[in-house]
């Protein structure tokens, strides 16, 4: 009787909330809950993505981003800055940040584009970094997360949706207290 009482759910309790995976079907979220409960998330991710990328500096990140942009968004505005940012707290939808400021230069209006990538992506597989960079580059052209936006993401990286899911799975793993899987945490600031 008492054991049963101990196991009965709290009033209003529902299955564990997975904030990074809310937009996915309930059945898929249940599969992730089962995976987390079995402790198999780390092994699954590491098997799929054995290696971290080597883009350790802002300069390397800029060149990587500029090359992707040159391939797919040639007509877009120039990127002034691309950098890792340890102040971005990766929660919910804020995987990266993109800013476009209109500057008046000699009477002409020009846009200044910056992309900042959460510093945790220094220590991830290249596929995860690519997903973030593609996402932020797509925002140069499409502001909202609508159909046109995701079409552009998939055009730049055909496996975009799989990578985004796997990034969100990794964030869910970290959220549940799991260890970082690819190298040390960035130094705190
Ligand atoms: Zn976005």
From TrEMBL:
Residues 1-20 are annotated as: Disordered. CDD domains: M48_yhfN_like. Residues 107-163 form the YgjP-like metallopeptidase domain. It holds the Pfam family YgjP-like. This is M48 family metallopeptidase. It comes from Comamonas endophytica.
């Amino acid at each position: 009787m008492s054991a049963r009482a101990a196991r009965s759910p709290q009033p209003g309790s529902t299955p564990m909330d997975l904030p990074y995976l809310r937009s996915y079907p309930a059945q898929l979220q249940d599969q992730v809950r089962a995976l987390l409960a079995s402790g198999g998330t780390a092994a699954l991710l590491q098997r799929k993505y054995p290696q971290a990328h080597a883009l350790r500096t802002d300069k390397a990140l800029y060149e990587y981003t500029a090359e992707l942009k040159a391939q797919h968004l040639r007509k877009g505005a120039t990127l002034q800055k691309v950098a890792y940012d340890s102040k971005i707290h990766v929660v919910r939808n804020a995987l990266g940040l993109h800013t476009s400021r209109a500057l008046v230069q000699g009477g002409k209006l020009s846009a200044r584009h910056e992309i900042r990538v959460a510093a945790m992506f220094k220590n991830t597989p290249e596929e995860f970094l690519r997903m973030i960079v593609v996402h932020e580059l797509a925002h140069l052209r499409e502001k909202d997360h609508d159909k046109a936006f995701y079409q552009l993401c998939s055009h730049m990286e055909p496996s975009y949706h799989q990578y985004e899911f796997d990034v969100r799975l990794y964030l869910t793993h970290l959220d549940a207290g799991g260890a970082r899987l690819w190298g040390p945490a960035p130094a705190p600031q």
